[in-house]
């Protein structure tokens, strides 16, 4: 029987100016700064203003009670190094510096970095902060114990994937995300909004709801509310080829409510899998095994109709033909993928990137 190894282990793969959260010019040529307690503080104008870019997900959380609640729920320990992504002007950063031993903040916006450095220096906490001014999706993280962050909405999916499927090990990630995105992340098999994002993240981690946060608590306010969730990596992870799993779930959840039998009878899908399987066997010739003891030799089918019969046969004989991906547990999906791979049916060919998760 032709086999392919699918057991590659997954690597766990400020000064007064800077305390301002938003600057506005009024009729007296002064700057108005809205602090977290809602009081309005006037400062002399020092520049034309800090313009926050909604397109880049720049929404500053301003409610002190919520900031405190996020830090408490994260269970930050005095010995922890915390990774913060998108610190902005440092509202959450200042809270984390009080609770943790060290904070590593990744921020791309130079203006935010300057304000953050000044604010932290004003409180004599610069020795506890490392700032990385780079694109977080293109940055190799140093070692850290946990993540606490207000994630920019426009990079939520690839960033969660980088954390969960990356090589850094960590205790938890407490993330402030768009509410709709959080609900998708929390969905379970059988839920109407169960999706590929949830099935991929929950393969390696548990996701827990913490609290909702109104859009009114941000400056500028986004169009939608947010939620805080906590992601905890699983101690025991399944022994599966990550690339193969991600390609498999992409296939299954493309039309998650169709039956698997209907999905894999489509000519386009059959030809795609046939091509991928041919490539898989050709590039992994050392993994081909012929089981002479049982006189069973599985040959590569170059005929699409024969290949299709093999695919449907696997579904029928194992009770998957009439099942829908959106209803399947991780255990069932892993079993089906293993059955396909054992029959030399593969789902991936090219390297994956963060947007494929």
Chart the SSEs and their pairings:
Layout: E1 30-34, E2 40-44, E3 60-61, H1 64-74, E4 81-85, H2 91-99, E5 102-106, H3 110-122, E6 129-132, E7 146-150, H4 156-165, E8 172-178, H5 179-186, H6 196-204, E9 205-213, E10 218-219, E11 226-233, H7 242-252, H8 260-263, H9 267-283, H10 304-317, H11 330-342
Parallel strand pairs: 4-5, 4-7, 5-6, 7-8
Antiparallel strand pairs: 1-2, 3-10, 8-11, 9-11
Helix pairs in contact: 1-2
Keywords:
elongated; 357 residues; 11 helices; alpha/beta; disordered N terminus; 11 strands; seven-stranded mixed β-sheet; two-stranded antiparallel sheet; single chain
What features would you describe in this structure?
The chain has 357 residues and is of the alpha/beta class. It contains eleven helices and eleven strands. It has a seven-stranded mixed β-sheet, sandwiched between helices. α1 (64-74) packs across α2 (91-99). The longest helix is centred in the last third of the chain and has 17 residues, at 267-283.
How would you concisely characterize the structure shown here?
The chain is 33% helix and 16% strand.
Distinct helical segment count: 11
**What is the terminal separation in angstroms?**
31 Å
Strand order of the largest sheet: 6-5-4-7-8-11-9
Flag low-confidence runs.
1-48, 281-301
Most strands sheet: 7 strands, mixed
Anisotropy-based shape: elongated
Q: Number of DSSP strands?
A: 11
Structural class: alpha/beta
% residues in beta strands: 15-25%
Provide the helix percentage: 25-40%
Q: Please give the radius of gyration in angstroms.
A: 25 Å
**pLDDT averaged over residues:** 81
Order of helices and strands: EEEHEHEHEEHEHHEEEHHHHH
Family: Belongs to the class I-like SAM-binding methyltransferase superfamily. rRNA adenine N(6)-methyltransferase family.
Binding site for S-adenosyl-L-methionine: 59, 61, 86, 107, 135, 150
InterPro entries: KsgA/Erm (IPR001737), rRNA_Ade_Mease_Trfase_CS (IPR020596), rRNA_Ade_methylase_Trfase_N (IPR020598), rRNA_adenine_dimethylase (IPR011530), SAM-dependent_MTases_sf (IPR029063)
Organism: Brassica carinata (Ethiopian mustard)
């Amino acid at each position: 029987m032709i086999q392919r190894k699918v057991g590659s282990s997954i690597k766990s793969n400020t000064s007064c100016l800077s305390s301002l959260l938003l600057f506005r010019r009024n009729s007296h040529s002064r700057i108005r700064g809205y602090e977290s307690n809602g009081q309005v503080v006037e400062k002399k104008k020092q520049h034309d203003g800090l313009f926050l870019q909604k397109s880049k997900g720049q929404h500053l959380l301003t409610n002190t009670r919520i900031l405190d609640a996020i830090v408490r729920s994260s269970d930050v320990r005095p010995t922890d190094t915390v990774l913060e992504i998108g610190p902005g002007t440092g509202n959450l950063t200042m809270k984390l510096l009080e609770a943790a031993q060290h904070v590593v903040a990744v921020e791309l916006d130079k203006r935010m970095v300057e304000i953050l450095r000044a604010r932290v220096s004003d409180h004599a906490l610069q020795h506890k902060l490392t700032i990385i001014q780079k694109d977080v999706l293109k940055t190799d993280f140093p070692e850290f114990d946990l993540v606490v962050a207000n994630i920019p909405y426009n990079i939520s999916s690839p960033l969660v994937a980088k954390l969960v499927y990356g090589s850094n090990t960590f205790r938890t990630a407490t993330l402030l995300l768009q509410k709709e995105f959080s609900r998708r992340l929390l969905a379970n098999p059988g839920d109407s909004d169960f999706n590929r994002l949830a099935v991929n993240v929950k393969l390696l981690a548990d996701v827990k709801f913490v609290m909702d946060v109104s859009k009114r608590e941000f400056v500028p306010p986004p169009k939608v509310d947010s939620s805080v969730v906590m992601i905890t990596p699983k101690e025991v992870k399944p022994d599966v080829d990550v690339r193969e799993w991600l390609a498999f779930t992409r296939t299954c959840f493309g039309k998650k409510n169709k039956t698997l039998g209907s999905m894999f009878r489509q000519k386009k899908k059959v030809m795609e899998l046939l091509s991928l399987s041919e490539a898989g066997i050709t590039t992994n010739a050392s993994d081909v095994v012929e089981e002479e003891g049982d006189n069973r030799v599985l040959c590569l089918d170059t005929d699409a109709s024969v290949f299709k019969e093999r695919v449907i046969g696997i579904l029928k004989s194992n009770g998957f033909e009439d099942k829908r991906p959106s209803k399947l547990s991780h255990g069932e999906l892993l079993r089906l993928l293993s059955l396909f791979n054992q029959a030399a049916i593969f789902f991936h060919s090219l390297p994956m990137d963060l947007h494929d998760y």
